[in-house]
Amino acid sequence: MSSSGLAARADAGTRRAIASAARIVVKVGSSSLTSVAGGISEVALKNLVDVLARRRLEGTEVILVSSGAIAAGLLPLGLSRRPKDLATQQAAASVGQGLLMAHYNRAFISHGVTVSQVLLTSEDLTRRSQYVNAHRALERLLHLGVVPVVNENDTVATHEIRFGDNDRLAALVAHLVKADALVLLSDVDSLYDGPPADGARRISHVDSPEDLEGIVIGSAGKAGVGTGGMATKVQAALIAAETGIPALVTSTENAAAALAGDDVGTWFSINGSKRPVRLLWLAHLADIRGRLVLDDGAVRAVCERHKSLLPAGITAVSGDFEAGDAVELADSAGTVVAHGLVNYQSADLPQMLGRSTKSLARELGREYEREVVHVDDLVQVHA
Question: CB within 8 A of 139, min separation 6: which ones?
Fold first, then answer.
């Protein structure tokens, strides 16, 4: 490991982790890149690129996760606001993605820095073969000195396979490339304990989710060109922090100060260790299609003894799902304790409840001898 990488790990509990990081992921939102008249603001984009290119030329590997493709496509299509239907969003993204990359290429090349376009869907980070390909491609680009510009592939992504917003995509990309830090930029300078206009206090440091209990966190802003908001940034920062990557939430105007390790924004300290990205997706991003209610013994087996879920421990089933879909596992009081990928469709499970796999195999066939949810496809979640 390089000396800068070692320094980043030593400083992981403080903002100095960003200043000394050998590899960082920076995410910028649509609202930070758009102009009042609509479309991409060349001034805002250039100012951000100046900061990132300078850091790249100092030796840090930089991955930029950038929103803005749909916003960039609105003006050329004669649209005054972000469309709500998926087909028009896809059309706007198709037009806007090329325009956005043209802006980035022009701004970065003025510093002698090469950029690339990387478009991802959630399947690229959750299916093993596609995950390996995405990892290999990004690693090679970084080793060649390129700044990858990553975005969700909005042109082809459906509702079922979308990340939902680029904040969570950035957290998964940071995990994918084993980044030393994640920086989430928007038009808000920090997380506050209430509306800033009402004199709320800036939250400088978050050590764990418990630090945010009782705080109401806002959704998407007034600009109407993005899908996130402070809530998704906090969620993304917590996802990164619980998987071993510190994160900072601040404004795009503070980008230079943030990358220098100055006291800006809200810092999320590491509170966990890295785990497979598939389980990270299952815990936070999977489209939950149903619920399995467990008896007390099954809850202990899954949560304490880390065992697979068998039909004998299930007392109720709800939802409409197929084999391979994500479901939530709840205790008898209704508290969700885990998420998992189910091995049976919902129509098959009612006849299996409370029965052993051996008796099911004897009566229904050997294919009913497998677990309902295998331990490798389970992840505990906390309410």
Answer: 177
